Amino acid sequence: MTMVLDQTHDPARKSWLASANQAGSDFPLQNLPFGIFRLSSGGRPRAGVAIGDRILDLAAALEAGCLELPAHTAAAAQQPALNALMAEPVEARRALRLALSNLLSEGSALAGDRSLHDRLLPPLSEVRMQLPAAIGDYTDFYASIFHATNVGSMFRPDSPLLPNYKWIPIGYHGRASSVVVSGTPVRRPRGQARPGDVPAPRFGPSRQLDYELELGAWIAGGNALGDPIPLDAAESSLFGVSLLNDWSARDIQAWEYQPLGPFLAKNFATTVSPWVVTMEALAPYRVPAFARPAGDPAPLPYLDGAWNRSQGGLAVTLEVAISSARMRQEGLAPARLSRGDFGLMYWTLAQMVTHHASNGCDLRPGDLLGSGTVSGPSKDERGCLLELTWRGRDPLTLPSGEARTFLEDGDEVIITGFCERPGAVRIGFGECRGVIMAAREL
Predict the structure, then answer these.
(1) Rounded Cα distance, 262 and 256, in Å
(2) What is the pLDDT of residues 304-345, one digit of tens each?
(3) N or C: which terminus of the chain has fewer CB atoms within 10 Å of its end residue's CB?
(4) Residues 10, 98: contact at Cβ < 8 Å?
(5) What amino acid positions are annotated as catalytic residues?
(6) Strand partners, 48
(7) Are 354 and 312 a contacting pair, CB within 8 Å?
(8) Prior bond of 259 cis (ω within 30°)
(9) Is the distance from CB of 322 to CB of 337 less than 8 angstroms?
């Protein structure tokens, strides 16, 4: 397995669209993430590619003859979801990326045809983003050893990590129907919880609502039922990644998770950002897999390989901020809560894919894998309020003077992410937002 660097990654390459060349833009020419949008004026969902402050309408570009693609790729690019495009072979995806880069680069034929610009490239401010794909299945992992150790120490101080953690990528099957796109309000869930030592549980709105800072990985080609995916082929089974917030009701979770793990505490909502940053765009930001401390077991052979050890990680910086209703009323900017490094995950995305399919489970284009909470060794790298407030023991103080142990109604959580390194252009992921709404009355 190799990550191909080509002219699409060249930091000297510029777009004829000025906003794509601005320092700090999430969507320079070297990124080209895919998403699904509707025009604010209406119409069917359409596939597009973010560039600067605009989105290239793929169907419109094909209809105008500006983009020449093989028939099967062109058909996939005109679907109202990205599943068909995700199913395209790696070579076709790379060829599409090159064609898009050429079209949007300085000196292209489109650069001088201003009559087409507004028709092919509506402003991002004038579109409504949709879920990137029709999600067949959603699986969430638990791949940060720092997160697992912190959470485990709250409940099992003498033995925070269960014996299997360093041997197996832990995950659970989530609920695809409740995955929503960024900007969708999140309703506070109701459920059973048993606070303290009371003899019986109560049923009502969660009092310990939390976020989880994650990346979501989108499956590409997948595998047939019964066929595993070897580790060396796992990267080809990934289309790209988005930001992901796995909302969690901690009080409900604490009561229900034994003996079968997460259920209603997790399946009421999962928010993803609308943009899928492709694995091809992430090629310059590969890093070695997490260096396991001395004494930790090596992965079993099916989860181990030279390429994964040397390039299996991703250097993605993730940040999470909060904006309370009072902060917005007072005109205060969102307050950053933490910053995480995805390169510190104990298990790589490829290992998650390979383990998921190791029993013959079929993964299909458009399936979604959550990484699990991205946390690091220091307090400002903790990726959820459960860790940041240590289960409510150490409240946070917001710029408005408000205290927080867990999320209150009206709070908005904003996740952002970016990749940068010397010799490469910074690329970003957009935003993953959600506002908490009050629980519905029964």
Answers:
(1) 7
(2) 999 999 999 999 999 999 999 999 999 999 999 999 999 999
(3) C
(4) no
(5) 147
(6) 35, 57
(7) no
(8) yes
(9) yes
Half-sphere exposure of 228 (CA within 13 A, CB side): 12
H or E element that contains 37: strand 34-39
Rounded distance between C-alpha atoms, residue 314 and residue 84, angstroms: 25
Distance, in Å, from the CA atom of 138 to the CA atom of 270, rounded to the nearest integer, reads 10
| DSSP label at residue 105 | B
Across 175-197, b (16+ Cβ under 10 Å) vs e yields: bbeebbbbbeebbbbbbebeeee
Q: What is the pLDDT of residue 222?
A: 86
Query: For the CA atoms of 47, 246, 140, 289, what is the dihedral angle to 10 degrees?
Result: 90
Spatial CA neighbour of 351 closest among 374, 371, 367: 371
Residue 2 is predicted with a pLDDT of 57
User: In Å, what is the CA distance from 54 to each residue of 26, 49, 178, 254?
Assistant: 11, 8, 28, 44
| Class of residue 156 by CB neighbours under 10 A (exposed 0-12, middle 13-18, buried 19+) | exposed
Burial (0-12, 13-18, 19+ Cβ within 10 Å), 298: exposed
> Phi and psi dihedrals of 5, rounded to 5?
-100, 130
Cα–Cα separations (whole angstroms), residue 133 to 97, 160, 332, 430: 19, 37, 35, 17
- Confidence (pTM): 0.97
Considering only CA atoms, give the Rg of the chain.
22
Length of the chain: 442
Q: pLDDT-derived band of residue 78, with 50, 70 and 90 as boundaries?
A: very high
Tokens of 261: 């793990």
User: What is the distance between the alpha carbons of residues 30 and 14, in angstroms, rounded to a whole number?
Assistant: 9
Pick from 290, 282, 296, 318: nearest CA to 430: 318
Contact 421, 315 (CB under 8 A): yes
For residue 342, give the nearest of 300, 372, 379 by alpha carbon.
Answer: 372
Cα separation of 218 and 86, whole Å? Answer: 8
Confidence of residue 197 (pLDDT cuts 50, 70, 90): confident
Q: Residue 81: CA atoms inside 13 Å, Cβ hemisphere, count?
A: 12
Q: Strand, helix or coil at 181?
A: strand
